[in-house]
Amino acid sequence: MKEEKYEEARKIIEKKNIKDTVTTSKIQQQIAKLFKEIGLNVEKEFLIGPYVLDFALKKKKICIEVNGFTHYYNFNGKINAKTTLKYYILNKLKWKVLTIEYMDWKNKSKEVNKKKNKKIKKTC
């Protein structure tokens, strides 16, 4: 049943030619700067199908997504359907999805963020 829903959603996306909107937030710029500082060579705003990935390690099929307010229904932390579908499709395409939550990033110091990026670098 889940596979049928996935196929149906994929066909709708292709038929309607739905594309992600490219927006680079201040936090994405900060994260890009930190990736550069730690020597992690990521592609920014990488296109895959109808989606734009915030950051991608193409050869390893790892994407790093910054989940800002538009990724949630409200402040309860529940990811919205559009983002859920995007992550589901990326997983079906054998991409590993890592996320950086806006509120986590906003509430932590720069040093903590550097540690998180080092952890991501180890994963990659």
Which tags fit this structure?
124 residues, alpha+beta, Endonuclease, Chain A, four-stranded mixed β-sheet, 5 helices, globular, RAP
Give the topology, please.
Blueprint: H1 2-16, H2 26-37, E1 43-48, E2 51-57, E3 62-67, H3 81-92, E4 96-101, H4 102-107, H5 110-123
Parallel strand pairs: 3-4
Antiparallel strand pairs: 1-2, 2-3
Class per helix and strand makeup: alpha+beta
Proportion of strand residues: 15-25%
Distance between the termini: 33 Å
For the record, the count of structural domains works out to 1
**How is the largest sheet built, in terms of strand order?**
1-2-3-4
Q: Provide the helix percentage.
A: 40-55%
Domain RAP: 62-122
Organism: Plasmodium falciparum (isolate NF54)
InterPro entries: RAP, Restrct_endonuc-II-like
Protein name: RAP domain-containing protein
Describe the structure.
The chain is globular, with a radius of gyration of 15 Å. The protein is of the alpha+beta class and 124 residues long. It has helices at 2-16, 26-37, 81-92, 102-107, 110-123, and strands at residues 43-48, 51-57, 62-67, 96-101. A four-stranded mixed β-sheet has the order 1-2-3-4, with helices on both faces. It starts with a helix and ends with a helix. It has a single domain (2-20, 40-123), classed as VSR Endonuclease (Endonuclease, Chain A), CATH 3.40.960. It comes from Plasmodium falciparum (isolate NF54).
